[in-house]
Structures are given as structure tokens and as C-alpha cells.
Amino acid sequence: MKREVVFLTTKKPFGDRFIKSNRSPDLSQQTGGEKTKKHSADKHSTEQRRKNPRPAQAKGTTASTQSNAAGRTTAPKIQYRPKPTNLAVASPSKPVTPKTTTHWGEVAEWYDKHVGEEGSDYHQEVILPGVMRLLELGKLAPEKPQILDIACGQGVLCRALAKAGCQVTGIDAAAELIAVALRRNATDRLPIEYRIGDATKIIDGIGKTDDSFKVNSLDAVTIVLSIQNMNPLSPIWHAVWALLKPKGRMVVVMMHPCFRVPQHSAWQWDQQIGEQHRLVRQYLRSTEIGITTHPGDAARGLGSSTTTHFHRPLQSYVNTMGNAGLYVDHIEEWTSHRTDQPSAKKAALDKARKEIPLFMAIRARKL
């Protein structure tokens, strides 16, 4: 009977190593006829091996030759390595241990200066107006909608929501950013509560919610420009579902996962037709990408910290939300508001900016 080695391969997300196990077919159930055929073939195969050297063994096996009572060499017996018993295939929902931090705490002061009290120009022109539009605050609650801002950073969205009449809670894994947010609110005295917290741990492994949060208590949850620094997704969505009131909504804003993949996408000028293109070299594969948190310092040789960007295709977001009971009812793709400096290429560059979106916003509701 022909013997085969079957390799079973399991691939885990974000670059984890392949896990292989060797399995051999069960040879203990040979019939008498099969044994007779095998014995008849042994004589021929022995002569063939004398004329032709035995080929190298397949990887993962060992072989030894034996002699029978007549001094004739029999076929080599292949011994298969036993299947490893201490290898566990990780579930895709288990967190990956990042090589670097996944928050921006180490550059909190620089980030605060960059964003400021009311946000960068991207916040003011694109992100904050878009989030407010998708939240539809007038439909949430008659008085003071209860909103949780996950990964709130230095509080730019929390302040905008509080000024719009909401009762806001902001959480962030970076204690340094929470300290900056508290310092700013010491002057503003807006109805905002800030907490240090990891969004992936609001709900534990057995489904129990953190005691500091009340289930079915929130009108809305926001996650703005931070979901791509978090992993895994499912615990976050399950926490959102648990905390939202029935029909409550969640708004997530991120760098567009189809067109903005760090180190794997870029603008490219086509000299022949005079147009700007967006080049994407990788999309479907989920990947951990290390990015510099302060590019200016790094360019000047001053050193800079890094954080982890978790790239995922669009389907990963929509499917995991749905599995957690969050129904995606609206998606928007937002382009940059900026325009290029006057030049012969300006019209083409501005056209590309208006055609290829910079951000993607997803709104989902609790079913």
C-alpha cells in the first residue's frame, strides 16, 4: 500500500507561525489479499533498490533497513514522528501580543499640541462634523444622551459631544493621554468622566462586564481613529452591544482600510497620462504593521516610539460586528478637504484627493 504523509496547516492572523502536524494513514487494516500483493512486490522492489540508490527520505520521517533470516535486505520501514501533543491552535479571537505598544501615550504632549482644544483641521473639517451627523443626537434621547468614547485620547471628541449637550465618558489605555484630557477639562468643567481602561477588557472571557460600566445604559458609543490600534475586535463589539440600550448606535471612524495601508499603499504619479493614482500592494491579508508615532523626530534622528497598526480588510469589521449583534446600517467614505499648492499638477492632484477616500465611517445599531 502506498504510504503518504499529509501536512495539515493552520494559519493564525497577524503573522503568527504556521503549525504543522504529520499524520500517517492507518496501515493496520490491510486485507489478506493486500498483504499477499505486498509480499510479491517485495522481491521486485528489492532488486530495484540494488540497482538504483534509495532516494532521500521525506522531511519529517526516519527510515532504517532490516535483514531477514536469509540475509536479504527488506524494504525500509518508515517511522513517523508522533503528532505533537503540546501544540494548541489559537482561536482567531485570542489577542496577539504586540511587539510595541498600541496606544499613543509616549507622545501624549506632542499629540495634544497637534490636536489642540478643538482638533486638527481634519477633525474640524471632516471627522467631527461627520460623527455628529451619523450620531443623530436629536434622535438618541430627549435630554443628555449618554455616550461612551472609546480610545478618547486627549478628549477632543468628548469635548465636542459635551458641548452639544451629551453626558460623556471617555476611556483610553494611555494614562498620559487621560492626564492631558483631565488637565484640559479642569478649565472647561464639561460633563465628562475620564477613565484609564482597555476596551478589549470591558468584558472578560466569561461574558462578565466590568463593574464600572452598567449594561444597557448608553445611547451611543464612538470609536474614532483608534480601532486600527486595537486587537482583537470581537471583545470590543461584544462590550459595545452589552453597554448600549436597545437600538443604541455605534459610530466607528478609521483610516480607509482599502486605500490607506501603512507601508503597503502610496500615491503614484502617472507621467504618461498626467494623473495621480493610488497604489495598493496589500489588502486582504490581516497584518501587524509597526508605525512611528512621531515621524518628525525620527526624520531628525532624535528617535521616536512606535505603535502597532492592525490592518484588516473591510469584511473583518462588518462580519465581526454582525457576529456580536451589531447591525451595520450605514457606511460613509470621507475624502480629504485639503487642496494642493498651485502647480501644473494641481488639478490632477486635487481630483485624486476627491476621488480616493481618506477615512471610512461605519454606523451600527444594537439588534
Which secondary-structure class do the elements indicate? alpha/beta
CATH H-level superfamily title of the largest domain: Vaccinia Virus protein VP39
Which regions are unreliable across 5 or more consecutive residues at pLDDT < 50? 1-41, 54-100
Whole-number mean pLDDT: 78
Main-sheet strand order equals: 7-6-5-8-9-15-14
Q: What is the topology?
A:
Layout: E1 6-10, E2 19-23, H1 32-51, E3 61-64, E4 77-80, H2 108-115, H3 121-135, H4 137-140, E5 146-150, H5 156-163, E6 167-172, H6 175-188, E7 192-196, E8 218-224, H7 234-243, E9 244-255, E10 265-270, E11 275-280, E12 287-292, H8 295-299, E13 306-311, H9 314-323, E14 326-334, H10 346-355, E15 359-366
Parallel strand pairs: 5-6, 5-8, 6-7, 8-9
Antiparallel strand pairs: 1-2, 3-4, 9-15, 10-11, 12-13, 14-15
What does this structure look like?
This protein has 367 residues and is of the alpha/beta class. The chain folds into 2 domains: 6-80, no CATH class; 105-366, Vaccinia Virus protein VP39 (Rossmann fold, 3-Layer(aba) Sandwich). The chain has 10 helices and 15 strands. It has helices spanning 32-51, 108-115, 121-135, 137-140, 156-163, 175-188, 234-243, 295-299, 314-323, 346-355, and strands spanning 6-10, 19-23, 61-64, 77-80, 146-150, 167-172, 192-196, 218-224, 244-255, 265-270, 275-280, 287-292, 306-311, 326-334, 359-366.
